[in-house]
Target: B-cell receptor CD22
Amino acid sequence: MYLMVMSVMAPPLPVILLLIGQGVYSAADGWSVSYSSSHICALKDSTVTINCTYKYPTGHHITEVLWTNTIVPCIDAPDLFKESEYRERIQYLGDKQHDCSVRLTDVRHTDKQEYYFRFITNKGKWIGAPGVTLDVTDLQVESEGETVMEGHPVNLTCKSRCSLTDTSTFIWFRNTQTLNDTNKKLILPSVRRENAGDYRCAVQGHKLTSPHQRLNVTYPPKQTSVAVNPCCVIVEGDSVNLTCISQSNPPANISWFKEETSVGSGNIFIISNIRSDHIGEYKCKAENELGEKYSESVTLNVLSVRCVSLSVALGVGCCLGVCGASAILLIVMYICRRKSLRRKASERKLKNDDVSNDTYTALELKSRSSDLYGTLTPNQKMM
Ligand SMILES: *[C@@H]1O[C@H](CO)[C@@H](O)[C@H](O)[C@H]1NC(C)=O
Ligand SMILES: *[C@@H]1O[C@H](CO)[C@@H](O)[C@H](O)[C@H]1NC(C)=O
Ligand SMILES: *[C@@H]1O[C@H](CO)[C@@H](O)[C@H](O)[C@H]1NC(C)=O
Ligand SMILES: *[C@@H]1O[C@H](CO)[C@@H](O)[C@H](O)[C@H]1NC(C)=O
Ligand SMILES: *[C@@H]1O[C@H](CO)[C@@H](O)[C@H](O)[C@H]1NC(C)=O
Ligand SMILES: *[C@@H]1O[C@H](CO)[C@@H](O)[C@H](O)[C@H]1NC(C)=O
Model:
C-alpha cells in the first residue's frame, strides 16, 4: 500500500511519482494498473476509449473505482464521474474486478491532460501512475503556398498537432466535391487549372473537418478570341461591339488592334456609327504578368445602305415569286462586297489624310469581382 510506504520514506515528490510509476510495490504486493497505451492522440469532437486492466492482492475486494486527472499524494483525487466538465461525457466500461476501461466522448481541447485509474479495496488503495496522456488536435490543410503557377508541383498536407494512428484514412474535399485521395498528403505533381479551389480534409469515421485552404492556380491568357455583336451583316451607321474573350488568372489586360495599329483597350471595343473606313481586320491581345496571347483576326465588312436596300428589295421580290431575282441578288451582294474591299484597299493608302471624327470607345471592365463597369477610357481615334 503505497500511501503508507510513502509517509515512512517521505522522499521528494518527483521520486514518489517515479516509484509509483515503476510499480515497485505492485511487484511485491500484486497491485497494478495497465493501460492499452500511455499516449493517445485524439481528434477534437471524437470519442476516445482507454482499455485498462487492474490487479490487487487476493483476499481484497473492491469498494470504489474512479478515474481522475490529478495525482496529489495524501489528497483524495477528484472523481471525474462526478465533475461537471466530464459527467455527461465519460462512461465507465469496466467493472469492479479487473477491467477499468473508460470512454470519453466529444473530446475538447481542455481534455488535454493526463488521466489515472484509481481504486480502493477494503484494505488499501492504488492509483495507476503514470497515467494516460491525452492529446487533442484539430486538422489543418497546409500547402507551401496559396498561389501556384499552372504546371508547377504542389503538396497539400492534412496536418494534426499530434500524430494520429498510421491506419487513419483521410478524406479530401475541393469546394463541395469529395476527391479520391485518401492519404495524409495530397500530391499534385503538375497543378492544373481545375485543381484550383478551397481544400478541406477530414479523417474517415470522424466528423471534424479542417478549415479550408485556398489553392489559386495562375496561368497566362489562353483561348483568346473576338466576338462581334451584332454579328454577320453590319450596315453603315450601326454600332458594333467587339468583345475579347480570354481565360487567364490573374485577369488579363486587353488591347485592340486594327491590322497592326493599336486602337484601344478594355474588354469591349465599341465602334459607334460604323462607316466603310472601319472595314478591316481586328484582333485583341490579352496580357497578364505570365504572358500574352493574340486572338485570330476577325474581318469587319460594312454594307453600304444603298446595297442593302437593293438586296432587301430583291429578296422581297423573290419571296413574292420572282425567283429569278435571287440570282441577281447574289450578284449584287458580290459586287457590293467587291466595291467595299476595293474602297478599303484604297483607303489604306490614304489613311493619314482622313482623320475621322467618329469615336471609338473602349469600355474597361475593371476586374471580375467588380459589379460595375469601370471607367470609360478616353475616346480613341482611328486613322
Ligand atoms: C480496447 O478493447 C476493445 C475490446 O476488447 C478492442 O476492440 C479495442 O481495439 C481496444 N482498443 C485499444 C486501443 O487497444
Ligand atoms: C511533394 O511530396 C513528394 C512526395 O513526398 C515529394 O517527392 C515532392 O518533392 C513534394 N513536392 C513539393 C513541391 O514539396
Ligand atoms: C474518382 O475515381 C473514379 C474511378 O476511378 C473516377 O471516375 C472519378 O472521376 C474520380 N473522381 C475524382 C474527383 O477524381
Ligand atoms: C455594346 O456594349 C455596351 C456596353 O456594354 C452595351 O450597352 C450595348 O448594348 C452593346 N451593344 C450590342 C449591340 O451588344
Ligand atoms: C491568384 O493570385 C494572383 C497573384 O497573387 C492574384 O492576382 C489573383 O487575383 C488570384 N486569383 C484568385 C482567383 O484569387
Ligand atoms: C495592366 O494594366 C494596369 C493598369 O493600366 C497596369 O498597371 C498593369 O501593369 C498592366 N499589367 C500587365 C501585365 O500589362
Summary: The chain has six helices and 28 strands. Residues 147, 216, 218, 249-250 surround 2-acetamido-2-deoxy-beta-D-glucopyranose (ligand 5) (CB under 6 Å).
